Amino acid sequence: MRIATPTLISLLAVALFAGIGSEASAQQRFRQLLEQRRAATPRADLPAGTRIERDIAYGNDPKQRYDVYLPAHAQPGAPILFMVHGGGWRRGDKASPGVVGNKAAYWLNQGFVFVSANNRLVPDADPMQQAEDVAAAIASVQQHARQWNADPGRMLLMGHSAGAHLVVLVATKPDLLRKAGAQRPLGVVSLDSGALDVPSLMGQARVPELYRNAFGSDPAFWRSVSPQQQLDRRALPLLLVCSSTRHFPTSPCDEARKLASRANAASVPAQVLPEALQHGEINSQLGLPSAYTQAVAGWITNRVNTTLTQIRR
């Protein structure tokens, strides 16, 4: 089921990004209507018997925590799906219904252990430090995986919006994983990141404040946190989901195709999956019965099964 986005929400988003009227009041109205929208989005219940271990620390900061969702009958060697929330690098939470909800329900039913992680946020941590947090959380999950009947070598990463940028940055800059003591995950699912080419993004005529707050004004820093500029042949396989209805400040599908082209040229598997869904729907509706869910699940299953085949050889 897909719910049409109310025109008023779209207009408020445009007004906010364009700087029309009071930004604070526009943001407040947008958040209120977005919460109403989220409440109307169908959600699948977590499977019966799901156990949740909350607020596992991977650092000293209160934001350096993750939650683990365990299927009732986890099989030994269960794969892990590791999720990072969005929120413009400055807000968001691992327990939000849109972050967990349908995705956790779907992949728990497939026998996965589902992990949802927080990280430090702007202004306390810039995007590079946030990516370092993500890498540290990955390492922590892998170190504890056996106690959850999970296989640390069968982990996939997923993130939405700013969280998608972070997991793709980790994928394209694997030294972050090495420095954190983490094993290489099997691949990354990016859910509508609009910051795959940060220098191009920051060079647009109109750049929303959330990007300026996150990335600042230093072009050298833009390149250092830009997946497009960081990717080389060591990068992880990528599935780049993008909203084909979104075009401001850049087109996420254009960014995804550009990154996939660079990846494929470096012999890194990368696939672009355009979806005619709004930015939030890309996140909240994944896991509901749809061709979209089937496509993402198929890619994930293929990565897991490919690894199993290699192990058996």
The helix fraction, in percent, is: 40-55%
**Mean residue pLDDT:** 89
Residues in β-strands, percent: 15-25%
> Strand-and-helix sequence, N→C?
HHEEEHEHEHHEHHHHEHEHH
**Shape field:** globular
Quick description:
With 313 residues, this protein is an alpha/beta fold.
General description of the model:
With 313 residues, the chain is an alpha/beta fold. It has 2 domains: 1-40; 47-312, Rossmann fold (3-Layer(aba) Sandwich). It is built from 13 helices and 8 strands. The protein has an 8-stranded mixed β-sheet with strand order 1-2-4-3-5-6-7-8, with helices on both faces. Helix 3 links the parallel strand 3 (78-84) and strand 4. It is globular and about 50 Å long. The model is unreliable at 1-23 (pLDDT under 50).
For this entry, give a set of tags.
13 helices, eight-stranded mixed beta sheet, alpha/beta, 313 residues, 2 domains, disordered N terminus, Rossmann fold
Topology record:
Layout: H1 7-18, H2 23-40, E1 51-57, E2 65-70, E3 78-84, H3 101-109, E4 113-117, H4 127-144, E5 150-160, H5 162-172, H6 175-180, E6 187-191, H7 198-202, H8 209-215, H9 219-224, H10 227-230, E7 238-243, H11 252-265, E8 270-275, H12 279-284, H13 291-312
